[in-house]
Write a structure and sequence with these properties.
CATH class of the largest domain: Alpha Beta
CATH topology of the largest domain: Aspartate Aminotransferase, domain 2
Radius of gyration: 21 Å
Structural class: alpha/beta
Distance between the termini: 62 Å
Order of helices and strands: HEHHEHEHEHEHEHEEHHHEEHEEEH
Strand order of the largest sheet: 2-8-7-6-5-3-4
Length: 356
């Protein structure tokens, strides 16, 4: 019988990692994960039923996602050769680091931002260069570029809008990074449908630019579909690393159906944008809160008291949001996803009761 000291076999950089914390607490109202709170509309569900009837589930999926790429290319105004499909955009982040970085290379991004950039980088033996955001959760390109170049960074990630702060960085400063960085610039537009701002039009002019998008925020989080838009030369290298059959048949076909019948989903997005404005206005009326502007489907706010205590009291009332207070720049900060009108109303009523 083997009884090895397994920790001696596990790489030190993996041992020192903290796993990305995914809250899976059973609450009636879940406003913690930046998901679309609405299920697919009935007309979309009807289309989904047809997918299950016509899919050959005993066969491997299309390894090139040709049908989905054709739909995306028409929607985005690019050619299929500009597209790579991932099992969520997380997979594409990992693949990009495999394509462009060797062991010990440096990856740059602002701080605070999406935690997976640093987690994936560390797991692959890469160094993370973080650039602190200012008090408005923005940055200036020149000092960021100086630190990127001084460290020899190979790739820079810019979450646009930024998670967890919710804002889009200054477009002109992002543009300067794209134009002047000697490495790869990844603009992560996971929340594009809520921001309606993009650098997609810059792709023909800058072959070092990669755009990431996700279907998770607009109603298909369970399917894990993300995609990258980039120069065909980059896409060709991604496809060398990408595992075969990385996106299953059901996810490919359901996503294609939804994109080709997008109007009901757009109505949901429009409702969430209206609710975002209502949520920001309502939260801003609480004198004890600092509420930050948002271009995403969530709102970041800071409380005067202990954020963990407010988080716990909301959870006791069957409402789950995200406590971000463990990050030094986000002390006493919480993030609430925009829910349905009824969920938002309940959340605001609970906040009024707790703060009062």
């Amino acid at each position: 019988m083997s009884n090895l000291d397994l920790m001696q076999l596990i790489k030190g950089r993996v041992q020192s990692l903290k796993a990305y914390h995914v809250e899976n607490i059973d609450c009636e109202i879940k406003l913690h994960a930046n998901e679309n709170p609405f299920p697919p509309p009935p007309e979309i569900l009807k289309l989904f039923e047809d997918v299950f009837k016509t899919s050959d589930l005993n066969r491997y999926p299309d390894p090139d996602c040709r049908l989905l790429k054709q739909t995306l290319s028409k929607r985005l105004g690019v050619i299929p050769e500009n597209l790579a499909i991932g099992n969520g955009s997380d997979e594409l982040i990992q693949i990009l680091l495999q394509v462009f970085c060797d062991l010990g290379d440096t990856v740059g991004f602002p701080d605070p931002t999406f935690a997976m950039y640093a987690i994936i980088a560390q797991g692959m033996g890469l160094k993370s260069l973080t650039h602190p955001l200012d008090d408005q959760w923005d940055f200036k390109a020149e000092p960021f570029l100086e630190s990127l170049e001084a460290s020899g960074a190979r790739i820079a990630f810019l979450s646009y809008p930024n998670n967890p702060t919710g804002n889009c960085f200054s477009g002109s400063e992002v543009q300067k990074v794209i134009e002047n960085f000697s490495g790869i610039v990844v603009v992560d537009e996971a929340y594009h449908d809520f921001a309606r701002k993009t650098f997609l039009s810059e792709l023909p002019r800058h072959n070092n630019l990669i755009i990431l998008r996700s279907m998770s925020k607009i109603g298909l989080a369970a399917l894990r579909v993300g995609y990258a838009v980039a120069d065909p030369a980059i896409i060709a290298q991604i496809n060398k690393i990408r595992l075969p059959y990385n996106l299953n048949t059901v996810s490919q076909n359901l996503t294609d159906r939804l994109l080709n019948h997008f109007a009901p989903v757009q109505q949901q997005i429009d409702t969430l944008l209206a609710e975002r404005s209502r949520m920001i206005d309502a939260l801003s009326k609480f004198g004890q809160l600092t509420v930050y502007p948002s271009d995403a489907n969530f709102v970041l706010f800071r409380v005067e008291q202990d954020s963990a205590a407010l988080y716990k009291r909301l959870m006791d009332k069957d409402t789950l949001i995200r406590d971000l207070g463990s990050h030094p720049r986000l002390k006493n900060c919480l993030r609430v996803t925009i829910g349905t009108p009824a969920e938002n109303k309940s959340f605001l009523e609970q906040m009024a009761h707790i703060i009062k």
